[in-house]
Amino acid sequence: LYFEPFFPNPDVYIFGAGHVGREVGRYAAENGFNIHFVDFRGEIYREFDSSFAHCITDDYLSFAHNLECKENDFLIVMTPNHEFDEKLTYILGKKRTTYMGVIGSKRKVAEIRKRALETNALTEEELNHIDMPIGIPFNAQTPREIAISIVAKIIDVKNNLNK
Predict the structure, then answer these.
(1) Are 92 and 64 in contact (CB under 8 A)?
(2) Cα separations in angstroms, 133 against 85, 113, 141
(3) pTM of the predicted model, to two decimals?
(4) 49-79 pLDDT, tens per residue?
(5) Which residues does 89 contact at the CB level (< 8 Å), separation at least 6?
């Protein structure tokens, strides 16, 4: 007899359903993840085929505060605003999940990291659990290329858990 271990599809919460976020969701869904978009812009879900995802229209910060994460959840922060990204990082960085990533330039994530430590919003250990900038580094330029970098990273994290 041959037994294949069964691991349920992990949930991915994508904060921000913009150009990159929707591509991340699409590629991640095609690779066995359950997708949950969170965006305050309800009309944004009409801009693309979002039938593969659970689309949540809510304020990023209040949703993040109330989100009861499971240990095998993946959190991705890529809102249209740096301030939202930073505040979400502080909130979500306290939650124990398999993976958390924040989109941004090296300069932006360095500033978030510095302020998080200065204000005691997150500890060094909590910050080290966050992948920022998110994804596998390569010269990605378009939203689809950036999404491939991010989805490659979460696939790698997921597959290394199941070893």
Answers:
(1) yes
(2) 12, 11, 14
(3) 0.94
(4) 999 999 999 999 999 999 999 999 999 999 9
(5) 77, 102, 112, 116, 122, 130, 132
